[in-house]
Fold:
Amino acid sequence: NKLPIVRELLKSEEDNALVFKLIADPPTTTAQRLKGITTGGLPTFIDLKNNFNSSSVSEDNIVRQLRENSKNTVLMGDDTWLNLYPDDFSHAYVYPSFNVRDLHTVDQGCILHLHEALEKHAYGNVDFLVAHFLGVDHVGHTYSPYHPVMQSKLQEMNSIINNTVQHLPSNSLLLIMGDHGMTADGNHGGASAEETDAGLFAYTNRPNGFWQPSSSSSSSSSSSSSLPDVRQIDLV
Structure:
């Protein structure tokens, strides 16, 4: 219960908010999961050795499609994205990602540039924005997913999500997800359910939410005891 904004939006704006269990494919390492999210393809275990030295993505992908269709794209956070897409973002502000004892530098950078993008409109009308926070991941690696430090980091993320929702441009879609899960001892990379399963929260401020004007149905996700599954490679 450290992300109450999710529960509040599911309750107060049930046509505009959905929650799912997001299932990744192994290897559950960041570079390979970002490839899966953006290409819809399945990286293999051969890719695992490239997690610390990822080369640019050559397969067709949503980031390149956005660039080729003259969309204004903004990246902030984990520098793995820039390794994969060195020339495809209109604006990029990234930070080193492998010092797992640094819980705040990447997140503070994301907060700064999110503020500039959403409240100051410093980058113009943004079509696609990636903010890849790392604090939650680094707390898990350094302490464990259940350490008290995780509580304070999740509370910080709750405030960030709330502020982002308040300042979304009209007719926007917000996706909040983990690119992978984590074991109880703070590791990921393998194929256990702890490592492959994460969450996906979707919110839109479109006037009709996720539903067409003629539809009388509403989301059952907020009242369901079990979350519907979404495959990570299907997001794109």
Remarks:
- Residues 215-224 have pLDDT under 50 and may be disordered.
- Strands lie at 17-23, 73-78, 91-95, 128-132, 173-177, 197-204, 229-231.
- The CA atoms of residues 76 and 93 lie 5 Å apart.
- DSSP finds eight helices and seven strands in the chain.
